[in-house]
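Run: sequence + uridine-5'-diphosphate -> complex structure.
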Amino acid sequence: MTQAAYKRVLLKLSGEALMGDDAYGINRATIERMVADVKEVAQLGVELAIVIGGGNIFRGVAPGAQGMDRATADYMGMLATVMNSLALADAMRQQGMTARVMSAISIEQVVEPYVRPKALQYLEEGKIVIFAAGTGNPFFTTDTAAALRGSEIGAQVVLKATKVDGVYSADPNKDPSATRYSSISFDEAISRHLQVMDATAFALCRDQKLPIRVFSIVKPGALARIVLGEDEGTLVHV
Ligand SMILES: Nc1ncnc2c1ncn2[C@@H]1O[C@H](COP(=O)(O)OP(=O)(O)O)[C@@H](O)[C@H]1O
Ligand SMILES: O=c1ccn([C@@H]2O[C@H](COP(=O)(O)OP(=O)(O)O)[C@@H](O)[C@H]2O)c(=O)[nH]1
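>> structure
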C-alpha cells in the first residue's frame, strides 16, 4: 500500500478556483473534481482539515464593496466562506465522505461553532473538518485562517491549492517573464512582497515552523502527489 508522507494536513482551497470558468459562484463540475481529489487523499488515511475562501461570492476589497465600511464588507466575505463550506461539505457527503463544518462566527442554526477540542476529535475519528468564516475577524484573509487553524490542530503542512502552480518571482498572471521557485524561505517570500499569500499568513507559519506548499488546483492528481511526498508546486519553508 502507498504510504502518505503526512498524518494531518490543512488544505486551503481558493474560493475563486471554485468558479471554474464561470464569472462567479460555484461551478458544479469544479467542486466535484476538487472533492474527488480530496477523497483520494482521505483514502490514504491522512487526516484532513480544510479552509475555503469566499472570493467567488464576495471579496471585501472588491469593486462591489467600494464605499462600504471595510469591516462590514469583510463580514460579508466571511459569510461567503460559510456558503462555500456548506456546498463543499454537501458535495463530500454525495461522494460518501463525512465532513463537519465549524464556523468562526456563531450562526448556530446553520453550522456548529468552532471548538478546537471538538475539531481535533473529528479529525481523530477520520472526519473531514471544514473551517468556515475565516478567522472570524475582519482585516484578515482565509490564507491567514489556514495558517491559524493549521497551527492550532498541529498540521504538518499547509497545502495551498490555487490557480497558479506555485510561487513565482512576480504575479505570473501579470508578468509572463516570472519564474517559479521550487522552494523559498518565508523571509524571502515576505521581503520580496510575493503576493501569492499575505504577509500575516507567511509570518504566522514561519513563527510556528509550519511549512506551506503552494500548488495548482487545476493540475490533475497534484494533491495526491504532494501527500505521497512528491515534489510539486513550491515549498515555503523556515
Ligand atoms: N509571486 C506570485 N507567485 C504566484 N502567484 C502570485 C504571485 N503574486 C501574485 N500572485 C497571484 O496570487 C494568486 C493566488 O492567490 P489566491 O489567494 O489563491 O487567489 P485568489 O485570491 O484569486 O483566490 C494567483 O492566482 C496569482 O495571480
Ligand atoms: O479571517 C477572515 C477571512 C476572510 N475575510 C473576508 O472574506 C473574504 C474572502 O476570503 P478570501 O479573499 O481569503 O478568499 P479566497 O481568496 O480564497 O477566495 C476576504 O476578502 C475578506 O473580506 C475576513 O474578513 N476575515
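>> summary
Residues 1-163 form a domain with the Carbamate kinase fold (CATH 3.40.1160.10). The first strand starts at residue 8 and ends at 13.
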